[in-house]
Every structure is written in structure tokens, then in C-alpha cells.
Amino acid sequence: MSASFPPEPPPRDPRPFRPGFTPFEEEPLVRSHADDALTPIRVTTYEVHPLRRPRMVMVYGELDGERATEVCSELMTLDALGDGPITMHLRARDMTLDAAFSLVDTIDVLRCPVHALVVGEVGGAALAVLASAQRREMTRHAVLRLDEPTQGFDGTAAELAMREKEHRRLIAALYQRLSEVTGRAVEEIRDDAERRRIFTATQALAYGFVHDVAGMAPPGLT
Q1: In the chain, what is the greatest distance between 2 CA atoms, to the nearest angstrom?
Q2: What is the residue range of 135's domain?
Q3: pLDDT tens sequence across 125-174
Q4: CA–CA separation, 71 vs 129, rounded Å?
Q5: Checking DSSP bridges between strand 143-146 and strand 197-199, what pairing results, if any?
Q6: Which segments carry the region annotation Disordered (predicted)?
């Protein structure tokens, strides 16, 4: 059989083209209602290109060391994939000081900026994570809780003394970080923490915790 000339073009792929997505096919088996037999159907799914993935990290709930390690890995991966800002959604009522400062140290060494958006309640050691972001915002109904983190320890007298010393060091680092972003004295922040002060979005803005309240019109435009 002789080949036709000019050669026929290959058949077109009927699947829609989606920029940034790579199509691949799977053939799961489904049960037919007609003859109760297993009938293969063709399903097209899409794999998101790494450079088009949303540059966003969710920090929700109470974080321990294991979850903090996962978030740090997500941050470093996004940092390696591009230079654009990473948006970090925060809704963490509390976390251990160790977990908080592992996130703080990671954010401090990233090449790209991190923008934090508080979408619920954030308090305790989690405020250090908020303060580490280059840009900080809150939604209108979010709240901040300023109080001194507490933590129980087990062990010998020597181990307890060592852990208590490290705990006090991280507490001091928390107050220092909050002082730097708010422009307020460490003593003032410590006093407010002892009173377990709660901040609404507008109060947090006035105190200096955040730069803006998402969805709120700038002054003079209301």
C-alpha cells in the first residue's frame, strides 16, 4: 500500500487546551446499570504546572512540631519555585513556642516576602509567626489574643531548670519581635499579655500588629 502524499496530519486531541495544565488519562472501571457489567470509561484529569500553583500556605489549628515542619517545607518549596510573595493564611489559637519559632526562623531566611492574612483567632506564640511576615492583614471579624504562652514540662530537676530557661528565652524573643513590629515598648506588651488582652481588627491595626484590615475602606473614603 502506497503512502498518501502529502501525509495526513495526526488526529486532533478533542480535549480542551488549558494553559499551565498537562492532560493525562485514567481509565477507572464503573458498573453499568444496563447489564451490571464493568464498563471502562475515559476520564481526563489535569496536573497543575508547578510554576502555576497558588503561592499560598494555610496555618490552621493548634500547631505542634510535626505540623510546623510540614508548613516550613511548604514555604521552602514555594520559595524555590519563584520570587513572588507567599500568602500565609493564619487561624491558630495557639501553638508551642518551639513550633512558632521554627516557622519564624524559616520565614526569616526565605528569599521571597511572606504576606500574612489573619482569618480567625490568632493568639499566644502564633503572634510571633504573624509578626515575622513582611505584610500583615486581618479580615474584619478576625481577632488577636495577646497572652503569655504556657507549657508544662516533665523530667529531672536539672532538665526542668534547663527547659524553663529556654522557655523564658523564647518568651523574651516573642515580646521583642512584637515590639519591633508595633513600635511599642517590651514592657507595655508584656503588661498587655498579662492582662490577656483581646484585639479586634481595628484595635490590632491601631496597636500596630497589622498594616491593614482586608475589606475595610481607607480613611477618608467611607
Answers
A1: 92
A2: 54-213
A3: 999 999 999 999 999 999 999 999 887 667 788 877 888 899 999 999 99
A4: 12
A5: antiparallel
A6: 1-26
Give the single-character DSSP code of 203: H
Complete DSSP assignment for 30-95: EE-TTTS-EEE--EEEEEEPGGGS--EEEEES-B-HHHHHHHHHHHHHHHHH-SS-EEEEEE-S-B
Domain contains 27: no
Q: Are strands 212-214 and 29-31 parallel, antiparallel or unpaired?
A: unpaired
CA angle, 10 then 12 then 13, to 5°: 125
CATH number at residue 114: 3.90.226.10
Query: What residues have CB less than 8 Å from 141, skipping those under 6 apart?
Result: 201
> Of the candidates 142, 135, 57, 131, which has an alpha carbon nearest to the alpha carbon of residue 101?
131
114-118 and 56-60: which strand pairing?
unpaired
Domains in the chain: how many in total?
A: 1
Closest residue by Cα to residue 92 from 128, 64, 120: 120
Displacement of CA 36 from its chain's centroid (Å): 47
Dihedral class, residue 141 (left if φ above 0, else alpha if ψ from -120 to 50, else beta): alpha
What is the tens place of the pLDDT at every residue in 73-83? 999 999 999 99
Measured distance CA(137)–CA(170) in Å, rounded: 24
